[in-house]
Amino acid sequence: MARLVLSGVVANLAGGTLFGWSLVARQASRDVGAPALTAAAVFAVAIAVFTLALLGTRRGLHVLGPRRLLGGAAVAAGAGLGVAATGQVPLALWVGIGLAFGAASGVGYGVSVALVARVSAPRRGAATGLVVAAYAAGPVILGLLAPHAVPVFGWRACAAGLAVAVMGLLAGAAALAPAEGTARWGPPGAEEPADRRTVVPLWVVFAGGAAPGLFVFASAAPLAAGRGLGPATAGVAVSLLAGGNLAGRLVGGWWSDRVGRRPALTAALAVAAASVGGLAGPIEPWVVLSSFAGTGLAYGAVSALVPAATADRVGARAFPRAYSRVFTAWGCAGLAAPVIGGALTGGGQRADLVLLVAVPLIPAALALLLLTPPLPRARV
Hints:
Elements: H1 2-15, H2 25-31, H3 38-63, H4 66-86, H5 90-116, H6 121-153, H7 155-176, H8 196-218, H9 220-226, H10 231-259, H11 261-280, H12 285-314, H13 319-345, H14 361-370
Helix pairs in contact: 1-5, 1-6, 1-7, 3-5, 3-13, 4-5, 4-7, 5-6, 6-7, 6-10, 6-12, 8-12, 8-13, 8-14, 9-10, 10-11, 10-12, 11-12, 11-14, 12-13
């Protein structure tokens, strides 16, 4: 099982670098003569393609198996980043980053969480947390390296170097992954499709639990400025948000193995609600900074706990199909929370209305009560 976890960690470390696109997005768009809005639009397309690719991973796992899928993702990611690095027209960014790299990242993530679903239930939370934390670690590492490397070598050389690194990581993940398709996973009888009593509540929990964090990630800078934080302190707030996200994935998964997925998810939703309250309350720097950290912690925990809870309830063979449906909640929340939350709160400037961002947590908490019990451990 350690080999499965390592494969997932390596694949997600590579795929997560997609979220470092903003580090060179404006420079790349300007260099190819694209409008300023292209930088954000390319990333939006990549996220949409990411979600669609994850939805298609179920069938790919069944027919091709994890090893071939990760090998294909390595080729797509390398080609996409290579096209972006060498292209001289805006289409290179749309095709290279938006389509090819977005698809490779989605496939890598889908395969990774499917692999870790095969870990035994008593250790599944910690293993899932480690794998999804690797996805969050990718952009953190790029954020440390890019400010020093891009001014010296230029964004094109850095993108080409990233292409080589991502291809190598995904190829290594493929070598570690099993070759067989999901038809051979698990004992007989473990592949019944999950019913709506499992998928729908988990969908609501994921959407509602992730919405506050996605809003704060999208509005972090103006939200911090609106609370009276200076540029340096605002930078600390954003760092705490990212650090909390990473820590929440690691700690949340590990803790859930000891207390159970439902209590851990309940605690994550409570932390999210308290953190939103802190962002809407008195403007004290320590309260604001703590709330940024708490929001990241809760978002990271939900991101780790939902796939683990899905695997608990449907088993390894049915997991790719069930989780691909549950994961669309993240895509919906990622589109709706920043737009609706930003419109309602003036981009986070209206402190008295920030509490509205916590409203999705109410149906998420109610959905926890409707979750079906996990499968017996012998069938997982």
